[in-house]
Amino acid sequence: MNARSPRVRFAPSPTGYLHVGGARTALFNWLYVRKYGGQFLLRIEDTDKARSTDESTRAIFEGLEWLGLGWDEPPVYQGANLERHRADADRMLANGAVYRCFCTPAELDVRRKEAEARKESFKYDRRCDRLSQAEIDAKLAAGTPHVLRFRVPEGTTEWDDLVHERIAFPNKDIEDFVVLRSDRTPIYNMAVVSDDIAMRITLVMRGDDHISNTPKQIMLYHALGAELPRFAHLPMIHGLDGKKLSKRHGATAVADYQHQGILPGAMLNFLALLGWSPGGDREVMTMAEMIELFSTDGLQKKAAVFDTKKLEWMNGQHLSRTPAAALAPLITPMLVAAGLATAADLERKHDWYFALLDLLKVRARTTDEIVHQARPYFTDDISYDPDAVAKQWKDAAATRDILAATRERLSHTTWEPAAMEEALRKLAEERGTTGGKIFQPLRVALTGLTVSPGIFDVLMMLGPDRALLRIESAERWLEHSAAGA
């Protein structure tokens, strides 16, 4: 590791939402300094004024805050550092690392097309680097527009990547690249290096689509006389089809998953496993466990696969481990929005509500599913899921008969799980059937669903009055259904 105190950065462009790939990069940077010490910094790369928006900047902040990835110093806005970018470029011009290029875009386009016609790859031929000082002075006096180009040295540019190990680029394959445009705004690599030096960044951890930028950036560090950071290039994230993750694969914005009932801890856990392995078969982890287990040795080279079903499974694991007290602040507003309860109702029935959350969370994969499963406990106006009816109430008359007998038996039974189970199993035995043939139709009568907590837990949560009335309502529904058939 670098001898300097670790300083890492996440540097998104505010031209859209916080993408899951960006969130994963932010997470790995954040885990690095939480494990090894140091500072996690945020830089908003807003130099593309045409596409950068305040709304996107807000979305990035909100996404990081939802995930709990706080930054340790005030955010840096790249656009505010224009004068330093220019000064650094001018310093390289003064020390001979950079030269003025007066070639126009039209001239370069002609030469590019000529190279294509010869079936050669175009590379700038350094003609402006051969201008005499007198020719340069004359063009400057005439106000001829020009860019500043970096003079790529001979040899090879290489580094030890924390993910990919040794990476080397022959310098002959890199053309003299522009660092400052004719309007004296910096090219991406110039702005990034100038900012990373000023922010004292010791490790640049980012997606491996930036590998081709790294040799140019290393050259700029050398030309500016600055100490090199370490580099780590994380694997791309692909969809299940093996192609780079994009909107065609579904939701790619972190905010979308927040609104789909995914917990921040589950999202972090899922993102951490996209390109990192904690060792062994470990999958479900808290943030504290991820920090403890994190190591750059676990960073992987191969592309990671974003599987929404795996994310939902992960979320279910986190939901089941989250105490009701921590779930309630998330679920309460959702129940209120669904018109199922008021916050005052839930506060009044605090113990019952927390017990319900503990029952429902183990069978849900999202907070939305908890709300869906909670509906029968808050309203008696329930609807019967068509799949549940088709599966458990095939014979309306026979089912009505079973439910009537069940209601009769329960009405004369102590309202306590063991007593109710004994009574209904005895009923099944008397009728020459199994407990399941009574429990499953009863589940649909009580909840309208095929999935619920244990049937005796459901009965206890509803209480005797509501449960018996609900069974009676189901009997009436079945009677009408049988008559209609």
**Order of the strands making up the biggest sheet:** 1-2-3
Total count of helical runs of at least 4 residues: 21
Number of strands: 12
Q: Termini separation (Å)?
A: 76 Å
Q: What assembly state would you assign to the polypeptide chains in this entry?
A: single chain
Which CATH top level class of the largest domain fits? Alpha Beta
Summed up, what is this model?
The chain has 485 residues and is mainly alpha-helical.
Structural write-up:
With 485 residues, this protein is mainly alpha-helical. The protein folds into four domains: 1-72 and 235-321, Rossmann fold (3-Layer(aba) Sandwich), CATH 3.40.50.620; 82-180, Glutamyl-tRNA Synthetase, Domain 3 (Glutamyl-tRNA Synthetase, domain 3, Alpha-Beta Complex); 322-378; 386-484, Arc Repressor Mutant, subunit A (Orthogonal Bundle). Helix content is 50%, strand content 10%. The chain has a three-stranded parallel beta sheet with strand order 1-2-3. It has a three-stranded antiparallel beta sheet with strand order 4-5-8. A two-stranded antiparallel ribbon has the order 6-7. α6 crosses α7 (214-223) and α9 crosses α11. The longest helix is centred in the C-terminal third of the chain and has 21 residues, at 464-484. The model has no long low-confidence stretch (mean pLDDT 95).
